[in-house]
Design a protein that fits this description.
Strands 1-2 form a two-stranded parallel ribbon. The chain is mainly alpha-helical. Helix 5 (about 55-65) packs across helix 6 and helix 6 (about 75-90) packs parallel to helix 10 (about 150-165). The longest helix is centred in the middle third of the chain and has 19 residues, at about 75-90. It has helices at about 1-5, 5-20, 30-35, 35-45, 55-65, 75-90, 105-110, 110-120, 145-150, 150-165, and strands spanning about 50-55, 100-105.
Length: about 170
Amino acid sequence: CQVCFGRFYSRLMNVAAVLEAGTVEWVSKEPPYGRHAGELYDLIPDCRLVIMLRDGRDTALSMARKGWQRDDLQACIDRWRLFSEMTLESVGRVPESNVLLLRYEDLLDDAAENLERVLGFFGYDDVALDPSRLERPLGGNAGKWMEAMGPETKSYFDRTCGEISARLGYE
């Protein structure tokens, strides 16, 4: 399956196995799933999808640090834009009631509130949370672009990604 259809569809076969076993919940944090929300919904019409978003400027910096696109920051920005456009297009084919867009930065700002949003989205409104027991995820790895990006790169991002960034709730 993986050779013929690629890793994404190979993993979908695992989803099918989970569903055949009678399990109603399945979670994956694989980034490609956002870009395939429509296909997932077509396969599993009652699925509920939480799509994690992240500021494209921080994402591009992270991608460049990890060697994506030969450390070319503008190429990483372009790749983020492409992935984000694909995600929004695919999510647009799924009923709004089946999709929750969750911004990484919002999770960092208030983990308890956003965890309650996720739990409510899945129908677990009666779960009591103790916010004092929640740790800040990943130590707050957001907003680094403000100091790490030069004016030329910021301008490039604004020109090429400003519209989609605004659609995702980023300024």
